[in-house]
Amino acid sequence: MGTATGIIKALNSGIKHLAVKRFTLRYPEQKLKFVGDGYQFDPTTGVGIAGYKGRHMLFHDHCTGCQLCSIACEGVAEAIAMVKVQEEWKHNKKGIMPQIDYGKCVFCGLCVDACPFYALYMTNDYELSSFSKEALIYTPAQLQVKPNVQQDAELIFDDPRGAKHG
Ligand code: SF4
Ligand code: SF4
């Protein structure tokens, strides 16, 4: 009796889910659509702007080389090293900017919160896998390139049935 009830329950559940849209995406052909450009922080108001915490974006025309991002990361992951850049900026007399090691970064965003000059944001780029540890180290030049994030599927929240993609 118990086995029969179990089979009926399993069949019932299976039949009910035939009509439910699949949650998983066929990655890499399908990718999730993000809301916004990524996590940012406004140092003037002290308010974070919600967004995905993926690969950083560094704005060279804002970075003063103050090292506050690097200091913020010291107690977390020691993922930021300040390195020399071959650029001359009046606002960055030492000519140093952050370089980020994604082999160490835990994507906490504390470095973004620490930047007083709107120079460091996070983006929707999460495709950072590589065949070598060295390739995970992003130089200031690499960090200033805006990622080309492909966005296909929208995440839809359906209260009775849970999340699904559109
Ligand atoms: S997001 Fe990465 S680089 Fe920034 S503080 Fe956190 S661990 Fe360090
Ligand atoms: S990114 Fe911001 S916190 Fe880091 S060195 Fe540049 S200005 Fe300073």
From TrEMBL:
GO terms for cellular component: membrane. GO terms for molecular function: 4 iron, 4 sulfur cluster binding; metal ion binding; NADH dehydrogenase activity. The keyword Transmembrane helix does not apply. It comes from the Archaea. Residues 54-85, 96-125 form the 4Fe-4S ferredoxin-type domain. Pfam families: Fer4 (PF00037). InterPro entries: 4Fe4S_Fe-S-bd, 4Fe4S_Fe_S_CS, NADH_quinone_OxRdtase_chainI. Its EC number is 1.6.5.3. The keyword Iron applies. One of its GO terms (biological process) is aerobic respiration. This is NADH-ubiquinone oxidoreductase, subunit I.
